[in-house]
Each structure stands twice: as structure tokens, then as C-alpha cells.
Amino acid sequence: MATTAKKKKKTNNFIKFVKWFWILFITGVFMVALVFLLASWGALGEMPTFERLENPRTNLATEVISSDGVTLGKYYLDDNRTPVGFDNLPDHLVNALVATEDARYYNHSGIDVRGTIRAFAFLGKRGGASTISQQLARQLFGEVRSKNKLEAVQQKIKEWVIATRLERNYTKEEIIAMYFNIYDFGNNADGIRSASRIYFSKEPKDLNLKESAMLVGMFKNSSLYNPLPHRNPEGTKNRRDVVLAQMAKYDYISTEVKDSLQKMPLGLRYSPESHREGLATYFRMYLQRFLNNWIKENPKKEPGGKTSKYNIYLDGLKVYTTIDSRMQANAEQAVQEHMERLQAEFFHQNTPKRNKTAPFLDLDKSEINKIIERAVKTSNRWREMKAKGKSEKEIRASFTKPTPMVVFDWKSEGQEKDTVMTPMDSIRYYKTYLRAAMMSMEPQTGHVKAWVGGINFKHFQYDNVIQGARQAGSTFKPFVYAAAIDQLRLSPCDSLPDTQYCIEANKHGNPEPWCPRNSNFKYSGKRLTLKNALANSVNTVTAQLIDKVGPKSVVSIVKNLGLTREIPEVPSIALGTPDFNVYEMVGAYGTFANQGVYVKPVMITRIEDKNGTVLYEYVPETKDVLSKDVSYAMLDLLQGVTKGGSGARLRSTGANKYKKEYDEIITGYPYEFKNQIAGKTGTTQNNSDGWFMGMVPNLVTGVWVGGEERATHFKTITYGQGASMALPIWGLYMKKNYANKELGVSDKDFEKPENLSINVDCAKIQKEQDKDIDLDDDLEF
């Protein structure tokens, strides 16, 4: 009996044990479920809504994209992030992430149970249990990990809940893509797109295996595993090798491949991205101003009918531009190559020994002091010290104190050098630098293909393409000829005498007699064809033409060509006294190459939001200005400039054609172009501005070179003319363009209208007159 009682007691105890086990187990499961449920309800802190899970808030950079699909730059505040889809991530990059961060990623639903049990059992000594989904949850919605253990546990529970929600809302591939896009890889590399471009100068899809392994290795701690030479390249390499070992462990790569890659260096091609570096910096700053104005007039529609403003630094807009990255690179290289040599010659001519008022000419001390004073008061130093409440005495004293600074220098590495000088001396130093601008446009569409606003955006931020304006000089003369051909039905073969010509006072609104001289002070006395007169910029002929058509007619045509500034209706405008900028001049000249139709230059074709919705699409603005016959006659006239006039060196072989000293600054000469080129040089009074406008059938390009101050210029026309200052940039640029056949820059003839009503065959007359004309460039007066 006693034995039976003992057996019953043991049985009862076992049943009680089982009962309590299941009670405790079920209670535990219930409590865990309750905790998760409470967490999902927000009892442990605010949880993201369904809408936020569907549209996580990440700061996305606005991307500027060229017409050939290259990212020119980005606008961002703290996050330089541009998302990429899973399809653009190479397999080995994804495999590296899974092997290193979450080997059972494809087998769980946000929480790795095995990993969690292991982490609890060994207190994290054999690895953590954080899945990729949990890490993404922490990146998107998490908080800084609390040092309080209870709060840390609460945070972890919230991450688990969010991770499971993410798994329900997104595919595994979408979660991986989001994780790569959200991570901060350091050095302004936010997301995998920026990281691959900054560290390896390539797109994510082009990353190789060892590059992918390095970037995945940085997930552990991008601050610690930073590959830059002055940070931790050795530690980063070791971490990369761990990733490769993990890939071999899970059979993503062989042991032989792992061993081979672990012996290789990181192979960085570091190219930092900033607003002041990269291609088309001046254009991107223009675009930034455009976008800031655009968002004021185009509100963003929010759910519920509300509206807000787009933020170009946070909303991930995509701006598709007309700029061709290859032509832009050619343009920037052409400007740099020529301006470096031209500047060296300018420095040579403006040493204190040769010019005591360098870099200024024709000014007395009081005038120079006014220029310097204006520069001082508009400087960043003055504004910043004024904002800090410094007195004028303190501010002025700081301008005479030697200060360490980094200044622009063509010959130094990176075009910068460290030096010590007073801020006052630095002002004068920067005034010695000649500036340049060029813009290139397809005349049929108005698409701007290249835009160079200056010689170095970091040090010279004024954009000479579109900001301000300078005297056009003889590049304005073709507008006078166009008015004469259009209204008087003249032809390039018609002739006028090259004799001193005066327009009497009170005619055409002129208060005094106007008697312009030729630039060389010579007058042949013979009749010159319009083609010959324009080719050699004969001022007396231009004066006769504006007298015949009247300034009012010229101004009317000019305004229809997009030159809408206030222009005085007086005869002297014929020689280029009005101010225009490169943007305006290129648009106007484009009309000649587009059969008389003016097309307003366009830089942006489309703007999309981060989801690809089109927010803006360009509508061309055109205007019929000249007939096809008149515009072709103008092209024929302007070809004379490059065949035997002031632009003739474009075709020259260089054999004893020009003085030897020209070759020292005319970069890329001889050019030896054989195709049809229409163009016009321009040089303003005192050689202050040098222009060249050049055209082939599908590309119109304008170039301007000059000092910031008009008093900064070459002393003689040898170096100060448009043919020496501006034309070489066009020559270099076009040689580079023609070297790349993919660009499709035309070397064909201009299209000739059927049944052309204007005679352009002046060969016989031209040949005779060429004997009597001295090749000389043009001056304003």
C-alpha cells in the first residue's frame, strides 16, 4: 500500500510539474505576446504609423543628371543620399551583406530565433542576434541606444516589432535595398550610391567583389572602419577580409578566391562630392537658383489635400538637364588649358617694373583706391565681422594683418597654394586674374550642352555666363548686317566704300556728329563687299549700314533675338557699345544657325520627384525672326570671318601666318579646321573684353575673356584681341569635340535654302578686295 501511495504521489507531482510548466510556458508566451502587442500599440513609446512604414522619412539629395545619363552633382544638407533599386546592386554585394550580417536572412520573418537564443545563452559573446530587418528598423525609426538597461530592452522590443512589420510590408529584396540606401558610410557618403561613387568613383552596379566587401565591412562601424589614408585603412582592410572570410564560410565564394582577394589592397579611387567640386559647378549653382524659384510657384501636394514646399536638399528630386557631360568636360579643359597660358603672359606683362599700377591700366591712384575700397566692403570678411558687431576700425585693421590663407594659383597642385598675405593684398592678387566664360548650345532645340561660368568656382564664384554683362564689341555687328540684308535686301556681295564716314548731329537721335574710325586707322578708299567688310570688321562700312537702316530697326531685330536689355537707339550701338552676357549672345547667334528661328536657351528638360512622378517638363519658346534666306546669308557672311578675316587662324596651318609671339599664348594652334565655320571675334575699347562666337550647323558657342575690372586688360591688341583671348578656347573645345565621334558635332555644310533669293557667290570680288585689306582684329571704336 505504501509503495502504491508513493507511486501516486510521484505521478501527481509529475502532473503538477507538467501542468505548471505549461502554465508558465503559456503565460510566458502570453506575456511576450502581450509585450509585443503593447509595444505595437505604442505603450513602450511612439511607433511608426502604417503610412510612415510605407514611406519612411529619409533625407534624399536632389540629383542633377546630364543628357547622357551622368550625375553632374547633388544638392544636399547633411545627407548626400540618392537611392538605388535592388536590381542595381550586384549579387556579390548582397551576398556579402547576408553572409556577414544575417546568414539566415532568407529564412526568418524579421527575428532570428536561433540567433536570439544563442545571444541570450552566451550573453552576446558568440555574436548578436540583430537581423538586417532589425538594423534597418533602428536606422529608420530607432533612437540612440539608452545606457539604462530597462530602456535598452524596451528599445530592442520596439525594433523587433518594427522589423516584423517591415517584413510584412516589403519584400526581402526591398529591405536589403533600403538598408544599403539608408546607411551612412562617412565622408558625405550617405547610402550605397554615394559610397560607391566617393570611394571607388563608380556606380554600385559596377562594384567588384573586394570593393563590395569593403563597403559591407563598414556597416560594423563606418567611423572606426574608415578607409581614408589619414583615418584607418589597415583596420578597414582587416574588416574587409573578415567579410570575405564570411562569404567563403557560407559558400558564396571559394577559399581560393578569398585568399587571393585578401592579399589585395583596398584600391580606393577617392573622389569627394561637394557643391564646389566636380563637373559644371557654375551651371549647378545657376540651377540651384532656378530650383529655389521654381519651388515657390510649384507647391507639393500632401495627403489630405494639404500643400507644402519641396525642399531641394531633402526631397530627392531628379533634375534632368541638357548638359552633355562629355562636352562639359571638353569645355572646362579648353578653358583651363588656354587661360593658364594667357594668365602667365598677363603676369609677365604686369610686373611692377612694367606696370606700376598693376593689374590696372589707365587709372590714377584715386580710381584704383575706389576699386579696392568697393572690394573691401563687399568681401566676406567685411560682412562676417560686421555681423559679429566689430567696429569699422577693427575691421579695417584686420585687412592689413598678414594672415595664412589658401589662394588660387594655376601652377600649384589642385590649383591652390598655401600662403601668408594681408587680406588687402589678396584682393589685389585676385584682381590680377583674367576671367572667362563660355556656353555651347544646339540651335535647333535650344539645348545648352556646356556651361563654364569662370576659371575656378571655389575661388571665383561670379558666373560670367549669365550674371552681369560686358560690352559686346564687334560681335554686335552681325545684327546690324542682318537688319540691312533683311530690310534693304542687300546681299553679302553688295559693296560700300571704305572711307571715313560721319553721321551728322541730330540724326537717329545722335546729339553730336559720329565719325567712327577703323581699328588700324587706315581707309582703303575702295568699295568692299559686305562679306569682306564684316570679315575684317571694317567700322566705316558698319556705320554706313546703321545709317541706312536706322538704329531703331537694329534694336527691334536685336530684341527679337532675345537681347531684351535696354539698348539706346543711337548709331554708336553698331560697334558694340551695349552690354550683354554670353547666355544672351549664344541665344541670339543661334537664330542664324536655325534658319531664322530664335529658340530660347534651355537647360532643364524635366524634374521628377523621388517616385518618378514628372513635376516639370520644358516647353520650347521659339520666335520666327528672320527668313531662311536672310539667316543663310548671315551664315555666309560670318564664314568670311573664319576664312580670311579675324578668325582665320582657325583654318591656318600655322606656317608663318602669325607672329611668333602669338604661338606662346594661342593654345592648340594651329587648329586646321576644314569644315564650314561661321564666327565673329570681338574686342572692346582698351582690349578690356575679348569675344568669339563660333557656329557649326548643330552647335553655337560663345566665349568671353576679360578682367573682373575693365581696367584689368592687356596693353596692346596683340594679346588683347578676341582672336587671341577668346577664339583659342573655342578652337580647343571643338578639336576635343570632333575627336569624339559619339558626340555627333557636325562637320558638314550649313543647310542651304532651296531657291535662295540672295546672292552669296562673291568669290571673284572677294579675291580682288582681299589684296587691299590688312588682317587686323576689331576694336569698339
Quaternary state reads single chain
- Number of contiguous helices: 28
Residue runs with pLDDT of under 50 for 5 or more positions: 49-53, 119-127, 774-781
Radius of gyration: 35 Å
Form type: elongated
What percent of the residues sit in helical stretches (DSSP H or I)?
A: 40-55%
Mean pLDDT: 85
Strand tally is: 20
Placed side by side, the strands forming the largest sheet appear as: 2-1-5-15-16
Q: Give the biggest sheet.
A: 5 strands, mixed
Task: Give the key terms.
single chain, elongated, alpha+beta, 781 residues, 42% helix, 28 helices, 5-stranded antiparallel β-sheet
Compact overview of the structure:
By secondary structure, this protein is an alpha+beta fold. It is 42% helix and 12% strand.
